[in-house]
Design brief:
Shape: globular
CATH class: Mainly Alpha
Number of helices: 17
Oligomer: single chain
Radius of gyration: 20 Å
Order of helices and strands: HHHHHHHHHHHHHHHHH
Length: about 400
């Protein structure tokens, strides 16, 4: 058994959290691979079909607020167990859908509950376990999302190609349930306070207390108090615009690539490259922010994402698309741990779960708008050009919002 009083257990928390995010988000973000098969089999429009992803994000955002509050009170274990069971059942039911309402019920609502029951509890728990290197810990945890998004879509594509999309959904059901088991088994009801974990693994108590005092905020804000500040809402806006652009690309980039003549097998690799960029960004965000400061780092990352999104308007070759999504993915992957770590650093850990839940709702709203808006623009114009332009302009708005943020990465 792992000793909860040992510093190494912090990294056990990170590992099992990343594993569950791998399964939950890898399954959810494979939806872009199912888009064309579902449209072709049932005759739905791309806007209506991609609306199921928007429903996932809307439901997960609403549940994130509730789950954040419950995580602060009860811990993550029971919430993750419930979410994983609902998610696994929903994917299993997706394998036998025959109408649009089933798509929205099983994928939109069922998977939405699953995502809402994992993202906020997981990140709130990791935040509470760490004082030092919090951004690094969150970044490693979020690698699970990128790794799942990188590895599961090609596997889904293979199963769809060799069998059919029905079997692919059964596989996703099993993956979600299996990857949740370690988190349910090992994440206790109340995470050990980071100060205690550090104190048990350092012999120099005075040094530990000095380091802890430097990292702990002098004031532990409530969610209500934090919500009255400008930085809180700037974090909300930044999350909104990055989510809208990310889910637009995730849901539609495979369809866009095949529209310009790229094969399905090659197009799926675009998601793989984008998530390689996300992984690199998640792991390097902490180091970059230490050197440049979080505000400058976020400005540069968002500017890179905006440029990549705008240049996709002219991207018709596979290698150019590969390059742009790699840059876009790096920017997105690096902004996420910085934003999440800033919550605890600006407002303390007293209500970090609740604040994460509220901010996750803003992120979810962006995810709702992005895929549907892009799908609607395509249905009207038979082109993604205006959608790429809108996505780039949204990220520029997020870049301006960063100017109102303060604090430093710990």
């Amino acid at each position: 058994m792992f000793n909860r009083n040992n510093l190494s257990y912090q990294w056990v928390v990170v590992s099992i959290s990343a594993l569950f995010l791998f399964g939950a988000y890898g399954a959810q973000l494979s939806f872009g691979v199912f888009l064309k098969p579902l449209v072709e089999e049932f005759g739905w429009s791309r806007a209506v079909t991609s609306g199921a992803m928007s429903t996932v994000l809307g439901v997960s955002g609403l549940f994130g607020i509730i789950m954040g509050k419950l995580t602060d009170k009860y811990g993550a274990r029971i919430l993750i167990a419930i979410g994983a069971l609902i998610g696994g059942l929903s994917y299993w039911l997706m394998s036998d859908i025959s109408s649009l309402w089933q798509l929205y019920l099983y994928f939109g609502i069922g998977v939405g509950v699953c995502i809402g029951s994992c993202y906020t509890p997981i990140n709130a728990t990791v935040s509470k376990w760490f004082l030092e290197k919090r951004a690094l810990a969150i970044g490693i945890t979020l690698v699970g999302i990128s790794a799942g998004s990188m590895l599961l879509p090609p596997l889904v594509t293979y199963i769809i190609t060799t069998r059919d999309w029905h079997n692919a959904y059964i596989m996703l059901s099993i993956i979600v349930c299996i990857t949740a088991v370690p988190a349910v088994a090992l994440l206790g009801r109340k995470p050990q306070q980071p100060a205690e974990a550090v104190a048990h693994d350092r012999t120099n108590k005075d040094k530990v207390e000095d380091e802890v005092r430097e990292d702990i905020q002098p004031r532990q804000w409530s969610a209500t108090e934090a919500a009255k500040t400008a930085p809180f809402w700037m974090l909300m806006i930044t999350g909104f615009v990055t989510s809208a652009s990310f889910y637009f690309v995730t849901v539609h980039i495979v369809a866009y690539a095949t529209d310009v003549g790229i094969s399905v097998t090659a197009a799926v690799l675009i998601l793989t490259l984008m998530n390689i960029g996300c992984i690199a960004g998640s792991l390097l965000a902490w180091l970059i922010a230490i050197r440049l400061g979080n505000r400058v780092t976020l400005l540069l990352l968002l500017a890179a994402q905006a440029l990549a999104m705008l240049l996709l308007i002219w991207a018709t070759s596979l290698w150019l698309i590969f390059t742009l999504v790699l840059v876009f993915g790096f920017g997105f992957g690096a902004t996420m741990p910085i934003r999440l770590a800033m919550i605890s650093q600006l407002f303390g850990i007293r209500s970090v779960g609740t604040m994460l839940g509220i901010l996750s709702f803003g992120f979810a709203v962006g995810g709702i708008i992005g895929p549907v808006l892009a799908g609607y623009i395509f249905d009207v114009s038979q082109s993604y050009d205006i959608a790429f332009l809108a996505g780039g302009l949204l990220i520029i708005i997020g870049t301006l919002a960063v100017c109102f943020l303060g604090g430093s990465i710990g």
